[in-house]
Here is the input.
Amino acid sequence: MVYRGLAVAGAVVVTAVAVAVAVVLPSEPDEVVARPVTAPPAAPPSSGPAPAAVEPAPSASLPASAPAETVTPAAPAAQVTPTPGASLAPGYTAMEALYADPRVPRLTGSVRRMSLPAPSRKVTRDRRSGLAVPKLPRPWKAYGAAPFTTKQVLPKVRGSAVRGMFVTCPLPIMEQDSPRDSALLAARWTLNHHPKGARISWLASQPVKRGWLLVYRVTYGKRHSRAAVMVVDGGMRKPGLAFVTVPDAQRKQWRDIARVAAGVRVLG
Here is the structure.
């Protein structure tokens, strides 16, 4: 009877332990219990308010000396100065690039006006720019216009790579808010058609009907030319440009620069 009672008591104890283990252990082992404990992934930086800090779990092994993660703001872009004579630097307006070019001085109020003669009756019609321009007398003659729309030239000078030229075309540079500024940019553009190292000195500046006139000296080494640009609104998509230049080797034709300035007008 004593042994039988002990056996029954032992069976009751084993049953109770089994029930307790069944309650404590999850019914779905491995997937959750076997996963290692890791620190939560860092949140991506945001411009909004930072989330509340979360204390790491005691079981996570984080070194006490590890610094907090910080986000360093990007440094502002460095200022870029436009290179004179080069293409327009990013972030700069056309006029800022012009003022940074040492080849082109500031146009001040001290630059005088020039008197203009009576306009010529003989004209060449440039329908692309909407302008009628004077047909200059001999020794000027019409010449292959490309890449312009009209072109007149003086005879070549022996031993010189430059000669007088008078051309028209739609404005080949960015139009500005005022005809004066457009003419300034056009004068800078004409340096592409002068010898390397050319620099401008202003001789005259004045408004003309529906546009602006600039007359200037272009110096390159020991030689120089006289030149003029006119930017005139001929009613086309872009204003028209008239550009004339005459080197000092053909200075007898400098008087024709005034004829050009007086004779350019809008096609009627």
